[in-house]
Design a protein that fits this description.
Belongs to the PEPCase type 1 family. Its cofactor is Mg(2+). It is an enzyme of class 4 (lyase). With 882 residues, the protein is of the alpha/beta class. Among the domains are: 122 residues, Phosphoenolpyruvate/pyruvate domain (de novo design (two linked rop proteins), Up-down Bundle); 189 residues, TIM Barrel (Alpha-Beta Barrel); 166 residues, no CATH class. Helix content is 66%, strand content 6%. It has an 8-stranded parallel beta barrel with strand order 3-4-5-6-7-8-9-10, surrounded by 9 helices. It has a two-stranded antiparallel sheet with strand order 1-2. Strand 6, helix 18 and strand 7 form a beta-alpha-beta unit.
Length: 882
Amino acid sequence: MSKKSPLKQDIKMLGALLGETIKEQVGEEFFVKLEQIRLLSKRARKKNDEAADKELKELIRTLSNEEIKNMTRAFGQFLNLANITEGHHSMNELKLYDEDSLTKHLTQLTQIIPQLLADGRTKEEVNNTIANMNIELVMTAHPTEVKRRTLLHKHAKISQLLDNKDHHHLTPSEIREVNDSLSILITSLWESDEIRRIRPTPFEEAKWGLAIIEDTVWDAIPRFMRELDNILEKYTGQKLPNWASPIKFASWMGGDRDGNPNVTFETTERVCLLNRWTAAELYYQSINNAIQCISSTSCSDELRAIVGDAHEPYRAFLRPFRARFLETKKWAQAQLEGEVYKSSLPLMEDIEELREALNICHRSLAETSGKRLADASLLDLMRRLSCFGLNILNLDIRQESTRHMNVINAITEYLGEGSYADWPEDKKQEFLVRELQNKRPLMPSNMAFDEECQEVVDTVKTIAQQPPEALGAYVISMARTASDVLAVHLLQKECGVQNPLRVAPLFETLEDLENSGDIMEQLFSIDWYKNNIDGAQEVMIGYSDSGKDAGKLAASWAQYTAQEALHTVSKNHNVKLTLFHGRGGSVGRGGGPVEHALMSQPPGTVAGRMRVTEQGEVIQQKYSTADAACYNLHLYIAAVLQATLAKPPLPKQEWRDIMDSMSKTSCDAYRDIVRGRENFVKYFRQVTPEQELGRLHIGSRPAKRKKSGGIESLRAIPWIFAWTQTRSMLPAWLGIGEALDEALKEGHYDLIQEMIQEWPFFYFIMDMLDMVLVKTDYRVSAYYEELLADDDVKDLGIELRDKLKQTIAVSEDVVAGLSAQEDRIALRASIKVRNPYADTLNYLQGEVMRRLYKENQDGDPVLEDAVMATIAGIAAAMKNTG
């Protein structure tokens, strides 16, 4: 009999500890039922045993409400423990013990760099490309992290204990201590409330984002940069410059007000203060460490001229900066508490002042004590300053386009100039440009606005009060015209913003993506605009809403062609374009491996620059440990380097033609269902837990942009989240089956295979489709329908399952040519192991929803908790939410 792998051994061990906890906390009788259900589910799945599946459903039907709640918690807890263990072992496989580094990203870079050099790129090109990269990771508070922070901390401790067990030579007594600690943590998890009882405020979300920086990323950045230095020195003979910072961080938490009335101008002001407080605290500690480290008494003439005859010149030079950071922290704290603080020292507000001070110290140490000591003492601090600035996270502002239009409309009507909102686009542009150039103010100082307009004005006035470095871009969601962009520029002028934020239109729907090139052409053709953007433009590409609007395939092609058009327009006008990718964690929202995603972008559109959102549970997955953070940061470097210097091929015309055709077919098929069926919304709301997601308190943002309306008003995240829960995954595949089937019937099989093999963009689409379809299960979605759907929507359910089966069949035919990657094999193996647990959770969720809505038990607190627990458990089973 073969020995179980270390991964399986650890999962079995943690599962046994969980079982002991459940026996102790709930009782032996319940544990017997739990095991009976688990074994029935395994038998039903492994042997496709219909009798076992029927018995399982019947047994679940007999459970009391309290038993259902505890059953759901048990399966969810086990899946979380399995995820922790898988993550731990996956990181183990990546570690190089002798270098305390990670093999996979090193392997990628050590493959990519030699290949680039062999293809004719010079060492200088490689080094300069990385040194001048501008990758900005924008952390957002999109509500997809279903686990409470207290549970995440406990999960991290379990992972650390597993690490201790694996990487330290422990005595039998120490091993028992680790096992006891694991048992205590698992008991604590069971005793903890998994459900958020209060919806977090935007300020609390911002604190959560900063905690990720403080806990791991602050320390991971210097380590990541040292690893990068070592790789570059090996292959190019040069390290990065001291102040190089290829990766930076920004945030939407506290600045993203699109459809979220909880984000106000006061929120933005408080978050900016919180960022400054956190920065002051972290830099105070870092400078204090440098003071303790540098005890040298000799220094350069340059430094001596500043400090005079101080015995320890470096300490004398750095102490005032330490004191000023402490003073800045006290000032920010007082501001947050609504108090007045009279500072006795100048606050730390000028990043160049600190940068020059560190340069002086570093030069002096290198001159008198050698570069090694200089780097060891100060380089980490210098690189943190380059990465995080004096505010840790630059805060973007996001608002919906019509909110700006309404403000300007109110002004024009107040001044008797008519209704701006009713003007044609050319008249709007003419008016906005004229007022942008006019030295007198347009907006009367005493003008009264309605509540919504006043909030927009107050937000822009808040921007005017912040240090320039505190803020990032002003993102306009649902941008549709050139006037949408000009309007934000005018509002900044009218509200006294001395250092205007760059304005980034966000193109989200299919139509807006298709028009994006023309819109930017109009803007670049306006002299005022061209003269005021300093030769650079940021444009955001929407993934979530375009997918919800047109389906995955049509949206993907529209995103690709929009980027091509934007790149061409920008190049023609000699404007440096930065594309901001609003990618989510799930495939339906543009997710997937970053290296695949970047290589699938149009040639020339990356060019060493990119911004990308890091959303929801993805933040925790990527940055919860230093190892994971370094690994993912290296993935971005490798992907951007390859996309910049080893550009993907230009698509052939026949590839474009078939994509145009498949995109139209896919979009029509998708919209025929989502928009064309009168009972589609009713079906969606009956057979998915969409209504329950609004009660989950997993984010400050409402589930809808507007209180009324159907699918069009629903946010893309709960839209996808709900379908993921029922294993339908509908947004990620609906329409693609028809498109592929039509292409095959027209004799394009060989052409499609060529596209898969030679075009990264199309390979990525098919690879992601394959991954999504593996996670679907039409038997499970049929179960929800059986329990919950009214008779008048059941025909639609049958049709959707037929479409899913058709998509699976045609996809299996098409992707047969895909290389059998290790990741795909591992994914299938992982899903196979999880299916019995996921099946049970789906059956439990369906039964809870039946009791809530078919037996009129809505409002029962035990069932309400149970349905929340099923949502978290299924998310753990799927390893994502949506």
